[in-house]
């Protein structure tokens, strides 16, 4: 319980005195309040009534079972999760157990410098206080789950063996007893546990749990990411046996669709094919100019039945996880690359939807069926695009007139409906790592965005909409893919930034995709195009799964469910089972038990998706750092994509890599963080490094095992803005009570203590995988 503030005057207080006491105390139980005011007997009963009245008036809120606090207030100390990051990289925390009206707080810098700065998803113990700009939180202690385990690299010295953590935010070096280190080599990647016991001084002691590889293994980046994020690997014997015992599909209980010339269009290196498409003109006289579009999806539900070993392990994994050199699949290979993969020329079980569109791209109807299909061709995106562009090959030439032209014409009709709907048009360029035959990195290149990608994406989106509509119409519970409207706080931050580049945005205006798209279009050919795109991206909320529908803001859809990737997403398998139950297509549909558990399933698959995204992102960072390690000392062009108290995040043009320029290396004056201008501003000269500025930097450090890049700024800052107010030192822009000591010594300054990067928001993904 909180420490009682200075003792107030004795006797039953009036409401205002009681509220003043609560503001100072932060939180208190009724017994604490009574003691503070010296209340006894009947006065305590009157106090209870007063507390009830203040609660009914909305001035007090419950805190735990017995405690009270001012409504909308935070306790003096609380356990929080880091839940958000704004355009400048400022972290926001939220109480783990909070009421609906509990506000967020900005996480302030740690003045005592107690270890690495927190990052997204971390759990912390913090102290709360009211600041000039709202609630502030200061770190007391990190409470990350699993802190007793360390993934690290063996470093052997003359007398000791150490485990150095691969997490760039951690400084917990472990000492390994000599008896446990005899079989270890310098550079081994290990999973170690912190040994219990008193270790007041010096490094903690650790024991080796598992030797998982070598630091210099080309695949180390993926191995580290898998273990660091707890991505499940492999399958049990029971699951493998169950997968191998599945029968080849027949026509029993299925519609024969083998005459429909479906084709698959996937990445060139795809090993599983879970969707196929076909389009033809609608011959109905009532729909002149209209199109029929078929989407067939692998019928995973026919093989992965509820409450089997396969199902339990698929649910636990939640989804497949993709790395540059490997995939950790949700289903065993005998299914994911075998019976559930829509291979060319082979009979495959499918769930298919036949959609009808009019000449203006409006969907006028659809119907689901459980069928048996046979893919007529397997194309890569590049093949399909080249064919449409006039470059035919042996695979595309024979199907050009009958299959490819109709597909493209149907898509261009569907595009009219998409443009009318106006989904969010954020450009999110991606990079792909090219692996060499020996497992090394041959290069990094932008991932091409082709019309073929957009064709498949739009057809998958429409199939997903059909699934949600059918399940709603039949009153069948489902898991929606939801994407909420940006919060007011994010819109205010966007408006503040746009003001700095002369673009008006009414803070009271309700956000919608057309307004965002208008902004993106207005700035597309200006110097601010990239940074506006980046800030709009970060203004978006994160999509998730839920049995409750709030719509999909980014796609501008009222209802949306994932149906098209059941090989790699458990959410889609649940939707398939729902359709089977709703349309009476078999006995292997959604069960009553699953319906009762939908909320927990939705929460779980959201968590596993985010786990995979974090692991994939970390592996990419490490691969890129390994690629750039040979280029330390070289100069690169880039753009400032994040502005924080501790430095500038720079995205390099050539590789898309993100590196940090520590604030302590930015010259001879103290640069303060101006959160409204989204810039670091010189204390004496007012010179500025604003968000979005193009710069030249030198690579000072690249650490593959952590994925960290440290850069040195080569560009001069912009001149002082004559219209800008003086920097607001002492508020959110300052990391302490005075300017920090300026960095001296080697170029690049100290290593950054924070590995966090600006939030990615809605990332573009292949074939709508995570929309």
Automatic annotation (TrEMBL):
InterPro entries linked to this entry:
CSD2 (IPR040476), NA-bd_OB-fold (IPR012340), RNase_II/R (IPR001900), RNase_II/R_CS (IPR022966), RNase_II/RNase_R (IPR004476), RNase_R (IPR011805), RNR_Ribonuclease (IPR050180), S1_domain (IPR003029)
Looking up CDD domains in the UniProt record yields:
S1_RNase_R (cd04471)
Supply the EC number(s): 3.1.13.1
Alphabetical keyword list: Cytoplasm, Exonuclease, Hydrolase, Nuclease, RNA-binding
Give the source's domain of life in one word: Bacteria
Q: Which Gene3D superfamilies match?
A: Nucleic acid-binding proteins
Function field? 3'-5' exoribonuclease that releases 5'-nucleoside monophosphates and is involved in maturation of structured RNAs.
Question: How is this protein named in the record?
Answer: Ribonuclease R
- Origin species, per record, is Brevundimonas olei
**Which gene name does the record give?**
rnr
